[in-house]
UniProtKB/TrEMBL annotation:
Pfam families: PNP_UDP_1 (PF01048). This is Uridine phosphorylase. CDD domains: PNP_EcPNPI-like (cd09006). The lineage of its organism: Bacteria, Bacillati, Mycoplasmatota, Mycoplasmoidales, Metamycoplasmataceae. Keywords: Glycosyltransferase, Transferase. Its EC number is 2.4.2.3. One of its GO terms (molecular function) is purine-nucleoside phosphorylase activity. It catalyses: uridine + phosphate = alpha-D-ribose 1-phosphate + uracil. The gene is deoD. Signal peptide: none annotated. Residues 15-224 form the Nucleoside phosphorylase domain. PANTHER family: FI09636P-RELATED (PTHR43691:SF11), URIDINE PHOSPHORYLASE (PTHR43691). It comes from Mesomycoplasma lagogenitalium.
């Protein structure tokens, strides 16, 4: 056990899906898994292990932001011997072409600050990439399920309420959408020789100002969930 996870050895599966919201983790476990066990309750960051189509998988909340997912993904990789983590989260679109509920598969994560990469990897980089192998598997899963996926660069932003003009942020990041966690997940995977990927559902559009409700973000992002669950 770690300071942040009280699961016992063997209670975490080799494949972990990480939504940000603990209640989304609970929803996924109850809706899609069988033989479900709640294996972590520290700080109410719920983690569940169960079976999907007879195969073990863990759904673990990450909390919000780089520091939070940085802690949980590192501990899962390092101390629970997890092989691969897929973040399944929400994102705000930087382009009018992305509609509410569209699914995005991340092929690059850009961050404004190189601090996390410098501290974890010892390098000053603003861009990190997921596992190419894992991305290929997720694309194959989406194809089999008949779900359209947009592949692109996302912006992992540390500041939610930024005063920088949106147009400037989009110009700098060259991203199609924004979220707050993927860069740290990719850094930890690279550091520890593990696999990581990120699937996102568009929850709001910063260009058109369309948005979903908190309840919809918790329960209605099922396509992204189904693509990731097929990795079990």
């Amino acid at each position: 056990m770690t300071p942040h996870i009280n699961a016992k050895p063997g209670q975490i599966a080799k494949t972990v899906l990480m939504p940000g919201d603990p209640l989304r983790a609970k929803f996924i476990a109850e809706k899609f898994l069988t033989n479900v066990e709640l294996v972590n309750t520290v700080r109410n960051v719920f983690m569940y292990t169960g079976l999907y189509k007879g195969k073990p998988i863990t759904v673990a909340a990450s909390g919000m932001g780089v520091p939070s997912i940085g802690i949980y993904s590192y501990e899962l990789f390092k101390f629970y011997d997890v092989d691969r983590i897929v973040r399944i989260g929400s994102a705000g679109a930087y382009t009018a072409d992305l509609k509410l509920y569209d699914v995005v598969l991340v092929n690059e994560a850009y961050t404004d600050s190189h601090a996390y990469a410098e501290m974890v990897l010892g390098q000053k980089t603003h861009v990190l990439r997921p596992s190419a192998k894992l991305n290929a598997q997720l694309l194959e899963n989406a194809l089999k399920l008949g779900i359209d996926v947009t592949v692109g660069r996302i912006h992992t932003q540390d500041v939610f309420y930024s005063s920088r003009p949106l147009e400037k942020t989009i110009e700098i990041s060259k991203a199609i959408a924004v979220e707050m966690e993927s860069f740290a997940l990719f850094a930890n995977a690279k550091k520890l020789g593990k696999e990581a990927a990120c699937l996102l559902t568009i929850s709001d559009n910063l260009i058109t100002h369309e948005e979903t409700s908190s309840e919809e973000r918790e329960t209605k992002f099922s396509q992204m969930m189904e693509i990731a669950l097929e990795l079990a």
